[in-house]
Every structure is written in C-alpha cells, then in structure tokens.
Amino acid sequence: MEKIDLRSDTVTHPTEKMRQLMATAPVGDDVYGDDETVIRLEKTAAELLGKEAAMFVPSGVFGNQVSVLTHTKRAQEIILGEKCHIIEHEAGSVALISNVQTRTIDDSTGEMDPREVERIIRKAEDIHFPHTGLICVETAHSTGNVASLENLQEIRAIAKKHGIPVHLDGARLFNAATYLGVEGKDIAEHADSISLCLSKGLCAPVGSVVAGTKAFIHEARKNRKILGGGMRQAGILAAAGLEALEMRKRLKEDHDNALYFGEELDKIPGIRVHKDAIKINMIFFDIEKENFDDEKFVSHLKDRDILINGQDGGLYRFVTHYYITRERMDAVLEILREYFR
Q: In what residue span(s) does the Aromatic amino acid beta-eliminating lyase/threonine aldolase domain sit (predicted)?
C-alpha cells in the first residue's frame, strides 16, 4: 500500500499469506453446503464465539440485517442505541427488509442504560403498541467505546426476563475483547446472535460471520438465500476469513499504535486529542483554530498520499490498522507539524 489510509480499518488489503491461501483454497457450492473451506470457517468462528453454529455472509450490514429479519416479525419494535451502526450507517435497512419499528436510546458512551432499556420495553398486550421483538447492542462501538461485560450482562438478564432475544453487532468484537483483556466468547455469551466482521482490522477483503444457536442459523440460512446472500464457491473468500480470525491476536499492536499516535498528535499546537477516548484503534480529535478550512486540510493531506475523512460533528477520526506502522505515523506527524506551524 503506497498511500497512508487513516479513514477506517475497512481499507486494509489482504496480506500475502491470505492471497496464497485464497489461491489454493478447496471450494464447493456453499448453497448446497459442500464448500469445505466455508464449513471450516463457520465451525472455527462458532467455537471462538462459544456458539452452536455460524454462517458466512457477504458483509457486516448483511449480518446485522439477516439477524434482525430472523429474530423479528413485521411491525415489531426493536430497541437499540441512537449512535449504533444499524441506525447510523445501514441506510434504513431494518425498515425496508424486516419492516420493524426502531426505538433508540442514548449510547454515546458505547453503552445503553439497562434501566432505560427495561423502561421502554412494551410490556402490556395493548393493541395500540408494537411488540418489542429484539434488543440490539454493539461493541466495540463505532464511537471507539467498549461496553463493559457488566453492562452487556445486565441487558441480557433484562431481555431474558421479558423473553426478548439480544443481537450483538460485534463487527469489532475482537477489538473489544482485546481492550477488556477477555476472549471473544466472554462477550458473545451475553447475546443470542452475533455478527462479526472479518474485514474490519483483520485484513480479509470481504465477509462477516453470524453466529447463534443451530435453530437460529438454520432459519438465517433461508433468509440469507431470500436476501441474495447465498454464495457458490465462497471458499476463496472464506480462506481469507480463516486467516483474519488468526489476525485477531495482533490487534493489541493497533491499539498501542493508536495510543502512541494520539499522544504525539496532542503535542501539535492546534490539535486537541480526546485521549481518554482512545480505547481501541481509533483516535478522535478536534482542531482548535478559528475559521479552519476542513476541505483544504483534507486536500493538503491527500496531495501527500495521506487519506483522511473530513470532520464529523466537529471531530476528526484517525484509525490505525495492519498497514499503519510507527514509521508511517511518524511521517504523518511530521507533515501535520509543518501544516500547523
């Protein structure tokens, strides 16, 4: 990769080892259930997440949407955070695909308040109310926050009490596990289904995995077919996914790099880094200069082969990943020092 791409951890390319594995992967027709590489990926993912079964899907959005569709009935209501990925970045899919109503609550800290979750559950059988069909949680959150195990446990207990399933958007589950110092299954045990992304920070080019009970995955496979997600010789992609699962073991390096990057960025006059918010591989900062030209700033870096997103709500976000080495961070820092000088 020649460019230094700080926009997200979705921009990573497959490693050379991944490319070799993809080129030699045994394949079959996955819709018929005979692609042995896909089978191995699903079995491995299920074991890592402590679930009975798993299913390979094309993307994280697909994983979330097929899970919501499988858990719910039309005209039900789902509870989820107002800043979560399903609400912010999935183009209203739940309304179009599952025909459910969303009820959102504050999750700006990466967690929903369990008391608030329980308060808004539709408890009475009243013809005026939609029935609460699902609670969705997310960790690691796209804000860079990580929910505590205690928070997830409380929400799961409330859900069980009311007979409501819990879906976990675990796109960056292993980042959350790395931050908490636990295994992925220690987080996943607090949800009935999980969607895990293989291309966010793990270098796979395509794909996510949905995990849950055997009965849930059986029904989800039918819904995957309905949504057009049944793939044929998908073992070529699953081979990269298997290696991506191994790459979870190096995520602490990305987290450590984010801390280093954040500390050095904060030393540059004009940049204020939210250092307390650096929990995973994301650095958030704002520019303390009047009439600062966002477009000019982004273009200046792009001209020097550094890709960033413009500010969102006044905040900039840099994301570290496999291809953001200390050497590359130092190169960016030098250009920024010169720019703000």
A: 5-286
Q: Please tell me whether residues 73 and 212 are part of one structural domain.
A: yes
Sign of the dihedral defined by the CA atoms of residues 36, 39, 43, 45, in that order: positive
CB-based burial label for 339 (10 Å; 0-12, 13-18, 19+): middle
CB neighbour burial string for 67-84, b if at least 16 within 10 angstroms, e if fewer:
bbbbbbeeebbbbbbebb
pLDDT digits (tens, 9 = 90+) for 236-271: 999 999 999 999 999 999 999 999 999 999 999 999
Q: What is the model's pTM?
A: 0.96
Domain containing residue 102: CATH number:
3.40.640.10
pLDDT tens by residue, 69-80: 999 999 999 999
One-letter amino acid at 279 equals K
Strands (E), 156-253: 166-169, 193-197, 208-212
How many Å apart are CA 5 and CA 11, to the nearest integer? Answer: 7
Of the candidates 266, 249, 263, which has an alpha carbon nearest to the alpha carbon of residue 322?
249
- Give CA–CA dist 159/77, Å, rounded: 14
